[in-house]
Amino acid sequence: MGGPVLSGMTMAELQGVAEQLGLPRFAARQMAEWIYKKQIFEISEMTNLSKTARQRLSEEFVLGRSRPVREVKSADGTVKYLFRTLSGHYVETVYIPTADRATLCISTQVGCRMGCKFCMTGRQGLQAQLSVADMLNQIYSIPHFERLTNIVVMGQGEPFDNTDAVIRTCQLLTSSNGLAWSPKRITVSTVGLTEGMQRFLRETDCHLAISLHFPFAEERKEWMPAERAFPMDRTLALLRQQEFCREIGTDIRDEGEDSSHQRRLSFEYIVFQGLNDDEKHARALIRLLRGLRCRVNLIPFHTIPDSPFQGATEERMKSLRNHLTASGLLTTLRASRGQDIDAACGLLSTKESKA
């Protein structure tokens, strides 16, 4: 059954739906309550609307909510979900629980056109854009929805290659008429698409993560082709203009993980053995990020088929962390999660998936 999709509509748009169907104006707020605050899968569950109103809605609109078609659980508790999109494609989402938080990693595209050589999603190429409803469905439709504490937009796809949908999703999640989350609970990652990033910084207050991985432009061009069109020096120049990125005269190592007075900037750095794990790269990274108020997350590389890359040893990763920390860069080692179910960083791919 086709028709416009309710999930993803703003309050103004829902008011238009109410007007179209001859419903009272307050029906828009009732619909928003069911769509964005409750875990419903059918329009028929909107029980404070009249039976006639629900029938009319069902005849002319689609809710845009569906349960995952497959789930796989890792030995470490990570769960990977497969969702069917409204356009009939498939996309993966990863739930990562820890002792004190539950993070959901959502996707923004089916595949990705950025072409990073070390990423399974990049090998897939871009197959489809996800709608706002597709992104929200990954959040609302998992069994652990009520436990979620954080959302990271770091799954399949480049978020700012689908900027409109990503920004609207963030706005709905943080709206008082939506999930009403603090924007500090949401982090969006990009390889550095500056036009979309500028809009994101203007129109949301969510955290920003930059997929850096290589501090030298020539190396980054070789392994991350997006560097040619979206050079990191342009990204950094834009960030240096942002107030929240400027150091404020205090040692950033005193800045706690859960500080919430402003949005955070972080840089993701996958550590490859013999490629970007030595002191030369550490010094270059320090120079590159000097003066920025930020965090560096060191991420283990997870081997993919037919790949020349190998992950750095734990000893090398700790050495790199210590070098960066000693320079004043707040640096953390990210634990690998879900590797046994291909749910870890860089492993998501639905090229061959069939429900």
Number of helices: 12
User: How would you sum up the major sheet?
Assistant: 10 strands, mixed
| Beta-strand percentage range | 15-25%
CATH topology of the largest domain: TIM Barrel
Into how many domains do the coordinates divide? 2
Structural class: alpha/beta
Query: What Rg, in angstroms, do the CA atoms define?
Result: 21 Å
Q: Globular, elongated, flat, extended or rod-shaped: what is the shape?
A: elongated
Major sheet: arrangement of strands:
1-2-3-4-7-8-9-10-11-12
Q: What is the CATH C-level name of the largest domain? A: Alpha Beta
Run of helices and strands? HHHEEEEEHEHEHEHEHHHEHEHE
Mean pLDDT: 90
Instruction: Name the CATH homologous superfamily of the largest domain.
Output: Aldolase class I
> How many strands appear in the DSSP assignment?
12
Oligomerization status of the protein chains: single chain
Distance between the termini: 19 Å
Low-confidence stretches: 249-260
| Amount of helix | 25-40%
CATH architectural type of the largest domain: Alpha-Beta Barrel
Architecture overview:
There is one protein chain. The protein is built from twelve helices and twelve strands. A ten-stranded mixed beta sheet has the order 1-2-3-4-7-8-9-10-11-12, covered by helices on one side. Strands 5-6 form a two-stranded antiparallel ribbon. The protein is elongated. The two termini are 19 Å apart.
